[in-house]
Design a protein that fits this description.
This protein is α/β, with parallel strands linked by helices. It contains 14 helices and 19 strands. Helices cover about 30% and strands about 20% of the residues. It starts with a strand and ends with a strand. Bound molecules: iron/sulfur cluster (2 copies).
């Protein structure tokens, strides 16, 4: 059932966004919504501009989560600044007490007592971790109670479960909507095959089995990973260092999303969106327009087939076949994540390319027993050698995170002990330039970074960037528990005068003075040209 909402106000700049009923709930959502996990990796103003551009273009919902490093707060701020009505799909996890705390904290951020919708993050993981989902006192009971009390409109869940598992969720009749992975490739950059007893998601079967079942039960299907986590087309928000797929025609996100939306079983697509340019292109896919012309569909199919033939889908088949015991699929996975730039999560330390393959020479290039074989037709040695060369380039440019060994030997620095896990800081810039810099830090001290100081503004920690002549402050966006990490992404303004500078980064409390004795957590040379 599709509700086409035509222009309600003649001055509305977006007359044609399609809106669809969210399952059996009374809500209608735009055909395109935004995923917000990447917002933690872009400067705050860029995040706000991206969201507000989407709202202006007719996007009326976002998916977010409390563990997206402050994304929920940015969403709340963007909605308030835009003055528009936007539906927020946030989600919780953990036992009931924690889940309830997350629900209330979303209410506080959105300044409301009643949420349109709230959901369960990766519901199969909740069950796998032994959290009480279904039983008495569990989180489903909590959500149903909130609905009864009038404090919640609809319930959704996010899932990477098997089709059998998703089928059970649908038949439970608890959920109005489901956020599940689907794209034309049949896999995405984070696809993984876990060890037993967990069974992986199956994207092609989602289409064959889950789509019709959801239709039968009147449950809205919201598609995550519609662009394969950046595998299907280069993103516009982050630099793509290298594409490993060999499609002759590069695809556009708008066409890919439009093709998905031609499926009547699909309620909406939820691509991660992290720049104004991405907001414009993604939102346009949801506008009312004629179906994608057949010649464009043919290009889409052809490029997708070429991607499938040249990208590892991570089926895991070859991992046990390699005579040198290389974890082949994991090497491909980290290479795709590191080079694509658009992925929402980083590789775990223990799964980093150079942790798994520390040798400088690609093992495949000296292998005399090529026992690997790929049912998908990937030339594994050729592709792995290609991947190795590219990962070495990224390593030389300092663009890969520290390996676990490097992290272990790194000395904690600064008054709030931290380790630098990765950095994206140039060593030269034009005078007066603006450039996004990134730091990924780990709190290796014993204290929480946000709440310990209980500062009036609740933002007690600040990253200070000192050039010797100028200082820039960047606020911490969320709580960082001991042993956890946070991203600082910010727009840096380079000095106006050419010369050799030293960038010093300090993590301090807002009221803390930086003296000659204050230890920087990082020092970098910077040539201003
Ligand atoms: S068999 Fe092919 S698709 Fe499967 S993990 Fe190995 S390289 Fe990837
Ligand atoms: S060529 Fe590479 S992937 Fe294949 S068996 Fe040899 S080392 Fe393993």
């Amino acid at each position: 059932m599709i509700l086409e909402q035509m222009r309600r106000n003649p001055t509305d700049p977006v007359p044609y966004m399609r809106y669809r009923r969210l399952g059996r709930s009374p809500l209608t959502v735009s055909a395109v919504g935004f995923g917000t996990c990447q917002l933690r990796m872009i400067p705050e103003q860029q995040a706000l501009d991206t969201l507000k551009k989407g709202f202006e273009l007719g996007v009326n919902f976002v998916h977010t989560a409390p563990d997206y490093e402050g994304a929920e707060d940015l969403v709340a701020q963007a909605i308030e600044e835009s003055g528009r009505r936007v539906i927020v799909f946030s989600q919780g996890y953990g036992e009931r007490t924690h889940f309830e705390w997350l629900f209330e904290s979303t209410c506080r951020k959105l300044k409301t007592k009643r949420l349109d919708v709230f959901g369960i993050a990766c519901v199969e993981d909740r069950e796998y971790l032994g959290e009480n989902v279904w039983k008495k006192g569990g989180i489903i009971e909590f959500l149903l109670e909130k609905k009864q009390q009038g404090r919640l409109g609809s319930i959704f869940c996010e899932t990477h479960g098997t089709p059998e598992y998703i089928g059970k969720l649908i038949r439970s009749a608890v959920f109005d909507a489901m956020l599940l992975p689907y794209n034309l490739l049949g896999f995405h950059v984070l696809s993984y095959f876990p060890s037993s007893p967990v069974i992986p998601e199956d994207i092609p079967r989602n289409k064959k089995e889950i789509f019709p079942l959801a239709r039968q039960y009147g449950i809205a299907l919201m598609l995550m990973k519609p662009l394969g986590g950046g595998l299907m087309c280069p993103g516009k928000a982050f630099p793509t260092h290298r594409r490993f797929s060999t499609e002759r025609t590069l695809l556009r996100s708008e066409d890919i999303l439009r093709a998905l939306l031609m499926d009547a079983d699909v309620t909406c697509v939820v691509p991660g969106t992290a720049s104004v340019a991405e907001a414009e292109e993604n939102a346009a896919a949801g506008w009312v327009q004629s179906p994608l012309p057949s010649d464009q569909i043919a290009v889409l199919q052809c490029s997708t087939a070429e991607m499938i033939a040249s990208l590892c889908s991570r089926c895991g088949h070859c991992d046990l076949l390699c005579s040198r015991h290389l974890p082949v699929s994991w090497l491909f996975r980290d290479a795709y994540i590191s080079n694509g730039g658009s992925e929402t999560f980083e590789t775990l330390d223990r799964l980093q390319y150079f942790h798994l393959h520390p040798q400088d020479i690609a093992t495949c290039s000296v292998c005399d027993n090529r026992s690997c074989w790929c049912p998908q037709g990937i030339d594994i040695p050729y592709r792995l050698i290609e991947v190795h060369e590219q990962m070495q380039i990224l390593r030389e440019r300092g663009l890969l995170p520290e390996t676990p060994d490097q992290i272990n030997v790194q000395r904690p620095r600064g008054p709030w002990p931290s380790k630098v896990i990765s950095r994206d800081i140039p060593d030269r810039l034009p005078a007066g330039a603006r450039r996004t810099l990134r730091l990924w830090l780990e709190n290796v001290g014993p204290l929480k970074w946000l709440s310990l100081a209980a500062a009036a503004d609740h933002r007690p920690m600040t990253l200070v960037i000192d050039t010797g002549r100028t200082r820039q402050n960047v606020r911490l966006r969320h709580e960082v528990e001991p042993g956890t990490r946070t991203h600082f992404s910010f727009e840096f303004e380079s000095p106006d005068n050419p010369g050799q500078y030293t960038l010093r980064f300090f993590l301090v409390k807002e009221d803390e003075r930086i003296t000659d004795q204050t230890e920087p957590l990082l020092t970098c040379p910077l040539l201003i040209e």
